[in-house]
UniProtKB/TrEMBL annotation:
Annotated catalytic residues: C81 (nucleophile), H182 (charge relay system), E184 (charge relay system)
Signal sequence bounds: none
Molecular function, one GO term: glutaminase activity
Claim: Hydrolase is one of the keywords in the record: yes
Subunit structure, as described in the record: In the presence of PdxS, forms a dodecamer of heterodimers. Only shows activity in the heterodimer.
EC number: 4.3.3.6, 3.5.1.2
Superkingdom, natural source: Bacteria
Catalysed reactions, as listed in the record: aldehydo-D-ribose 5-phosphate + D-glyceraldehyde 3-phosphate + L-glutamine = pyridoxal 5'-phosphate + L-glutamate + phosphate + 3 H2O + H(+); L-glutamine + H2O = L-glutamate + NH4(+)
Keywords in alphabetical order: Glutamine amidotransferase, Hydrolase, Lyase, Pyridoxal phosphate
Protein name as it appears in the record: Pyridoxal 5'-phosphate synthase subunit PdxT
Amino acid sequence: MTRPLIGVLALQGDVREHLHALQDSGADAIGVRRPEELGKVDGLVLPGGESTTMSRLLKIFDLVEPLRTRLAEGMPAYGSCAGMILLASEILDTRPDAQHLDAIDMTVRRNAFGRQVDSFEADLDFAGVAGDPVRAVFIRAPWVERVGDGVEVLARVPESGGAADGRIVAVRQGAVVATSFHPEVTGDRRVHELFVDLVRER
Ligand code: GLN
């Protein structure tokens, strides 16, 4: 089967981990920093990092409009954590000038799990991922507070008696996927494989 070429937005954040995860999952992968690079790829990963910083760098690198255009044309994309925030149609608790790319009809809240639980892990049932639950690493993560009709919920925080029980942490709208957590750090490649398959189908 052919290896699609998938870009990782390389302005800031955990770029290298996603490049490795994509290569392990049957894709060729390159960092994307310029509109010409964006034009070459079959799909794009928006990594974790700091969404407000990435938002500012998107403007400086003249990537906002090219990225909006490619997303509107149906380019597959996968956003993890800060990447999820950038793909949203509405962001709560961010800066007024922060960019959102409107690729998924959802409202996300930044740093939603609160200061006490800055980082935590959980085992999630993830729609479309067979076998064992997915070990999810959350790092100052957002959650999804609202999804539109066209958005499929892929995973929620499991019931454990905590305040975040049932919160939506993975979604898909068409060819665009987003997770609140960081599958690139666990060595489990199933979420990246799901995305690479989706890019191949397009
Ligand atoms: N809290 C970060 C933000 O608001 C996201 C953290 C992450 O990507 N690990 O952008």
